[in-house]
C-alpha cells in the first residue's frame, strides 16, 4: 500500500494555491482560458449573417471556418472544443452552416445530417425547449426533414408577468427571440394575429429592459448563444434596430482570435467566488493578495432590482455588476466573504445574507433565478439549496435558523431511492449528493438516515483508483473526487475514513508539475446535452478537499499524524 504523507498534502496545498493565485489579475478577478463553444459560434454566425451580412462578413467567414475545422470525423460536433459529438451542437452547427454558408459548408452539412440521424435526431433531445430551438433553426435553414414538426411559441405569455417569470425565467430573452423568428415560419390566423399585436411590443419591451439593465452593452447575459437568438429574432422581425446593432457590436468585441465564441464570455464572479473559498480552505484567507478580490465582490453587489425576473438588489451575478442576479454564485460569494478574517464587520456580507434568505422558495428550497419557478432548469435544486445552507452556516447562522430548518426539511424529501441527489448546474450525481451530504452534516444531521444513505452511495461509487466520476462507473474527475471527499469528511464518520484517504491520495497524485489540476467537463450549460470545464472551479474544489482533510486530520486525536493510505 502506498502512503501519502501529511507533508505531501501540505505541499500539494501550497503548490495548488500558488497555481490558482497565478490566475488572479491585478483587479482581484480570477481568470480562465475556456474552450470555444460550437453553440455560441454557430449561433453568432447565423445571427450575424442574418442581421449584418455585409458589415460582419469577416466574422461570419471566420466563424464558418472554425466550425468546419471542429467537425469530427463522424460528421458531428461537440458542444465545446474536445467534446464528443452530441445532438444539440450538431443540429445547431448544421443549421448555421446551411443558413450562412450553403456552398462552402455543403459537404459538412451533408455529413452532419447523417450523423444527426444516427444519433436519433432532435427527438433524442430531452429538454423540450432546446428541442424546439433545434427544430426552429433547422426549419429556418430549410432542413424540414431533420426539424420535424414545429410548434408555435405562446408569445402571449409575456402579457402575464408572474406566469412568464415562473415558466420562462432566465430563458425569457431567447424565448422572445425565437417567438419573433416565427412570424414568417408559422403564419397565424386572424385571432392569433390580434393577440400577437398586443404581445409583441411587450416582448420587445422585455428585451429593452434587459438591454437597459446591462448598461446598453448588447451582451444579453454575457452569453453569445442567447444573444445570437435574440439577434436572429430582431433581424427577422425588424424590431428594435438599436438593440440589434448593440448585439452585433458586442459579438464583435466578444469574438476570439480564432474566429469562435465562448459558451459564456464572462464568469468573473463565478470563478472568483470559488477561488476565494478554495484558497481560504488552503489557509490563505488572510493573504493580502485576496483583498482586491473582496473589493471586487463589494463593487459588484447588485445595487438595483432586476425587474425582468423580479429579483431585488443585494445579490450577485456570475459576471459583473450589470449581470443577472443568481442564487448559486451569490451563495458561493457569501461563503467567500464569510471566510475573510474580519467578516463580522462586513456590511456587504450582512446585506447579501438578507438577500439570500429573502430568495428562498416557499417550499424551503432555493432556485437559481426565480422564486417558486416551474421551470425545471431553474429550480428547485438540491445542490443550490445546499449551497445556500452552507453560505448561511459559514456566516454564523445557527443550525435552527428558520431558513436553514425549512431547507433541511425540504432536502430530506428529495433523495432518490438509492440515496443520491440531483444537481442542475453540475454533472449528476456525485456533485449533488456530496454537496447535500456536506450541507446537512454541517447543520447537525450527519446521522440522519437520509444522509447516511447518501454517504453510503458516495462510498459505494468510488472507483478502484480512489477517484469519483458521476456515479455510473465512468472515469473519475478531480472535481467529483473533491466534492465526494468534502461530503464524506463533513459527516465525521470513521466508516468513511478509508474512502476519504484514498480520494485525498488520488487528488495529490493528480496534481500537475505546476501545482494545478486538470479540468473536466462537469459544468452544465445544457443539462444532459452540453458541458464545459472551468479550471478555476477545479483548482478551488481540490484545494477545499485537501484543506478540509488537513483540518480534520489535525483535529483528530485518535489517529497518529503522518500518512493517509491509498
From TrEMBL:
Assigned protein family: Belongs to the terpene cyclase/mutase family.
GO biological process: triterpenoid biosynthetic process
Recorded GO CC terms: lipid droplet
InterPro entries reported for this sequence: SQ_cyclase_C, SQ_cyclase_N, Squalene_cyclase, Terpenoid_cyclase/PrenylTrfase
Domain of life: Bacteria
GO molecular function list: intramolecular transferase activity
Pathway involvement of the protein, from the record: Secondary metabolite biosynthesis; hopanoid biosynthesis
Domain Squalene cyclase C-terminal residue range list: 275-519
PANTHER family recorded: LANOSTEROL SYNTHASE, TERPENE CYCLASE/MUTASE FAMILY MEMBER
Residue stretches making up the Squalene cyclase N-terminal domain: 16-160
Keyword Repeat found: yes
Transmembrane segment boundaries: none
Signal peptide region: none
Keywords annotated in UniProt: Repeat
UniProt-recorded name of the protein: Squalene-hopene/tetraprenyl-beta-curcumene cyclase
Record carries keyword Secreted: no
Alphabetized Gene3D superfamilies for the sequence: 1.50.10.20
Amino acid at each position: 500500500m502506498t502512503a501519502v504523507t501529511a507533508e505531501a498534502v501540505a505541499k500539494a496545498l501550497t503548490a495548488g494555491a500558488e497555481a490558482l493565485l497565478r490566475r488572479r489579475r491585478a483587479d482581484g478577478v480570477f481568470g480562465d482560458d475556456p474552450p470555444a463553444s460550437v453553440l455560441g459560434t454557430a449561433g453568432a454566425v447565423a445571427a450575424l449573417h442574418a442581421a449584418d451580412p455585409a458589415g460582419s462578413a469577416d466574422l461570419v467567414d471566420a466563424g464558418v471556418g472554425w466550425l468546419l475545422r471542429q467537425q469530427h470525423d463522424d460528421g458531428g460536433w461537440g458542444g465545446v472544443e474536445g467534446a464528443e459529438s452530441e445532438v444539440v451542437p450538431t443540429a445547431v452547427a448544421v443549421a448555421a452552416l446551411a443558413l450562412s454558408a450553403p456552398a462552402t459548408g455543403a459537404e459538412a452539412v451533408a455529413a452532419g445530417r447523417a450523423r444527426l440521424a444516427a444519433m436519433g435526431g432532435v427527438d433524442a433531445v430531452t429538454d423540450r425547449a432546446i428541442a424546439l430551438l433545434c427544430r426552429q433553426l433547422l426549419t429556418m435553414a430549410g432542413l424540414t426533414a431533420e426539424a420535424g414538426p414545429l410548434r408555435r411559441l405562446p408569445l402571449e405569455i409575456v402579457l402575464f408577468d408572474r406566469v412568464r417569470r415562473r415558466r420562462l425565467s432566465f430563458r425569457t430573452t431567447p424565448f422572445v427571440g425565437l417567438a419573433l423568428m416565427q412570424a414568417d415560419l408559422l403564419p397565424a390566423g386572424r385571432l392569433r394575429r390580434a393577440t400577437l399585436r398586443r404581445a409583441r411590443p411587450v416582448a420587445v419591451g422585455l428585451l429593452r429592459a434587459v438591454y437597459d439593465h446591462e448598461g446598453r452593452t448588447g451582451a444579453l447575459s454575457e452569453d453569445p448563444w442567447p444573444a445570437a437568438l435574440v439577434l436572429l429574432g430582431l433581424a427577422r422581425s425588424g424590431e428594435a434596430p438599436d438593440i440589434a446593432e448593440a448585439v452585433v457590436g458586442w459579438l464583435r468585441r466578444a469574438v476570439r482570435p480564432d474566429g469562435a465564441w465562448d459558451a459564456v464570455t464572462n464568469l468573473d464572479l463565478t470563478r472568483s467566488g470559488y477561488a476565494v473559498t478554495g484558497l481560504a480552505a488552503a489557509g490563505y484567507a488572510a493573504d493580502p493578495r485576496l483583498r482586491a478580490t473582496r473589493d471586487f465582490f463589494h463593487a459588484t453587489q447588485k445595487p438595483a432590482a432586476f425587474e425582468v425576473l423580479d429579483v431585488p438588489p443585494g445579490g450577485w451575478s456570475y459576471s459583473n455588476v450589470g449581470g443577472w442576479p443568481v442564487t448559486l454564485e451569490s451563495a458561493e460569494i457569501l461563503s467567500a466573504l464569510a471566510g475573510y478574517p474580519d467578516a463580522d464587520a462586513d456590511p456587504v456580507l450582512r446585506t447579501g445574507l438578507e438577500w439570500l434568505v429573502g430568495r428562498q422558495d416557499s417550499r424551503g428550497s432555493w432556485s437559481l433565478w426565480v422564486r417558486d419557478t416551474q421551470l425545471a432548469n431553474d429550480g428547485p435544486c438540491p445542490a443550490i439549496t445546499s449551497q445556500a445552507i452552507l453560505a448561511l452556516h459559514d456566516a454564523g447562522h445557527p443550525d435552527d435558523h428558520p431558513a436553514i430548518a425549512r431547507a433541511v426539511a425540504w432536502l430530506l424529501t428529495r433523495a432518490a431511492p438509492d440515496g443520491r441527489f440531483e444537481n442542475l448546474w453540475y454533472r449528476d450525481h456525485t456533485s449533488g449528493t456530496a454537496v447535500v451530504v456536506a450541507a446537512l452534516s454541517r447543520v447537525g444531521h450527519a446521522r440522519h438516515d437520509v444522509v447516511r444513505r447518501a454517504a453510503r452511495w458516495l462510498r459505494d461509487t468510488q472507483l478502484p483508483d480512489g477517484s469519483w466520476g458521476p456515479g455510473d462507473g465512468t472515469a473519475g474527475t478531480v472535481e467529483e473526487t473533491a466534492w465526494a471527499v468534502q461530503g464524506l469528511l463533513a459527516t465525521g464518520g470513521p466508516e468513511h475514513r478509508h474512502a476519504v484517504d484514498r480520494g485525498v491520495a488520488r487528488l495529490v497524485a493528480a496534481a500537475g508539475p505546476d501545482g494545478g489540476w486538470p479540468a473536466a467537463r462537469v459544468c452544465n450549460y445544457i443539462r444532459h446535452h452540453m458541458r464545459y470545464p472551468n479550471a478555476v472551479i477545479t483548482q478551488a474544489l481540490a484545494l477545499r478537499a485537501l484543506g478540509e482533510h488537513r483540518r480534520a486530520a489535525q483535529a483528530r486525536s485518535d489517529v497518529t499524524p503522518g500518512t493517509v493510505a491509498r
